[in-house]
Specification:
489 residues, Chitobiase, domain 2, TIM Barrel, eight-stranded parallel barrel, four-stranded mixed β-sheet, signal, hydrolase
Length: 489
């Protein structure tokens, strides 16, 4: 009804298949296992007429739902963005079903919710949906998942599966930590030698076509793709093709290369050209510039760096890093894009343009969130949602018990917390195990970022998570069991 677009039509195709597969998957599984006689947990093969009679005798049966009215009340936007409207309404009653939203992004979330409400009847003869009314929308506008593709290369098919899983959990930002010390898999148009020499292997490179495909698959699911090119540290792979970008080490570190060389003007020219390309390739308003974990040992050993500091009256390596990051942040500002930086950049006193987002990942998160927002800067939280930190089965509870507003501050300060991200660093994951490591543990973070603060019972969430895990398994996501012994039908 009203408006439509390619985003909505393609969403219909996806969710039509998902809803039809709800019963088929279970029936097929039972058939393959040779079940022929009926038992209490087996699916019946009944005719429509038999099903009609059994349902007509149920006092809750309201009739068949032949169609769903999808009422998009405003024209589609093309690209998901930070302040996109994701609110929607679902009404299912004796008269039918209506999904409505003023935004295509809200409609995508409505379709996801509707698909989760459709279940197989107890006897397996048909699909069932309960009459209900839902008014829904997210608590936070930035609900992200960081995926590191440098420590281990993650193939594009797996990345699309991750995007599917994100959509099933209403996450809306894919933070692509695409390069790091270990490999440079991004194939640059301006500097193809970066991946030619810096990737693990020629087959482990994201071509421009690969990247556009991921951005498009994310767009269709209402997910932003935010790139991160971390500097001045975490750049060893850059130096394979461009050693002049990195600082030459002396003394006990002689023969090694350290962080980027902040004393050379050519470093900033190179980065300016690369970031000019990055903002053309990745259409999102935000670029993550990193700025974390910069080791100062190499700078301290290099006489050129020390002389530069003396000439520029820089009395600490934090001040030198500040000068470097300032140049990069200003470059992004000139390109009319907004920056995200890890918390070290803020802590070291870099003068950040208004709107620069500070990403909290370690230390005292309550104190940091208070200070960042008190200074009028937006913040993102990740420190309590590191998916690579494993403890035991059911460790999603530690993620669930973390709230981005759990700090002392005014209402205005808390409004500056945009949301947060779960982080999947890839030192010990690759394409074979990344999906079960992410799912369903990220679902705990997703619910904290979507649902009202009053939704906070981990015991109640545990039941929902069991169902969501089975649902993801049915949809082809190899989510691991969340709570211990159990089963999915």
């Amino acid at each position: 009804m009203n408006f439509s677009c390619d985003l909505l039509e393609k969403a219909f195709d996806r969710y039509h298949k998902i809803i039809l597969s709800i019963g088929n998957t279970t029936r097929r599984a039972l058939h393959n296992r040779g079940y022929s006689s009926q038992s209490h947990n087996e699916l019946r093969t009944t005719t429509i007429h038999q099903a009609s009679r059994s349902w007509r005798s149920d006092s809750n049966w309201a009739g068949y739902l032949e169609t769903v009215k999808v009422e998009l009340k405003a024209p589609c936007e093309n690209l998901p963005h930070l302040s996109m409207d994701e609110e929607y309404t679902i009404v299912i009653d004796d008269f039918g079903a209506v999904l409505s939203s003023f935004s295509i992004w809200g409609m995508l979330r409505a379709l996801e919710s509707f698909s989760q409400m459709v279940v197989l009847s107890d006897d397996g003869s048909m699909l069932r949906v309960n009459a209900t009314t839902i008014d829904d929308g997210p608590r936070f506008s930035h609900r992200g998942l960081l995926v590191d593709t440098s420590r281990h290369f993650i193939d594009t098919c797996t990345l699309v599966k991750i995007l599917d899983g994100m959509a099933y959990n209403k996450l809306n930002v894919f933070h692509w930590h695409i390069v790091d010390d270990h490999s440079f898999p991004y194939e640059s148009k301006a500097f193809p030698e970066l991946s030619a020499k810096g990737a693990y292997h020629p087959s482990m490179v994201y071509t421009q076509q690969d990247i556009q495909m991921i951005i498009e698959e994310a767009r269709l699911r209402g997910i932003r793709v935010m790139s991160e090119f971390d500097t001045p540290g975490h750049t060893r792979s850059w130096g394979v093709s461009h050693p002049e970008l990195l600082t030459e080490c002396y003394d006990q570190y002689r023969g090694k290369l350290g962080p980027m060389d902040p004393t050379r003007e050519s470093t900033y020219t190179f980065l300016s050209n690369l970031f000019r390309e990055v903002i053309e390739v990745f259409p999102d308003q935000y670029v993550h510039l990193g700025g974390d974990e910069v080791g100062f040992e190499c700078w301290a050993s290099n006489p050129n760096v020390l002389e530069y500091m003396k000439q520029n009256r820089l009395y600490s390596f934090e001040m030198l890093e500040e000068k470097f990051i300032q140049r990069i942040v200003d470059q992004i500002d000139v390109l009319n894009r907004s920056s995200l930086v890890w918390q070290e950049v803020y802590v070291n006193g870099v003068r950040l343009p208004k709107g620069t987002v500070v990403h909290v990942w370690t230390g005292n998160r309550q104190d940091l969130l208070n200070r960042i927002t008190r200074d009028g800067l937006p913040a993102l939280l990740s420190s309590c949602w590191y998916l690579d930190h494993l403890s035991t089965g059911g460790d999603w509870r530690k993620f669930y018990n973390c709230d981005p507003h759990d700090f002392i501050g005014t209402g205005q300060q808390k409004s500056l917390v945009l949301g947060g991200e779960a982080c999947m660093w890839s030192e010990v994951v690759n394409g074979h195990n990344i999906l079960p490591r992410i799912f369903p543990r990220v679902s705990a973070t997703a619910e904290k970022l979507w649902s009202p603060a009053s939704v906070n019972s981990a015991d109640e969430a545990a039941r929902r998570l069991e169902e969501q895990t089975c649902r993801m398994n049915h949809r082809g996501i190899p989510a691991q069991p969340p709570n211990g012994p159990g089963f999915c039908i």
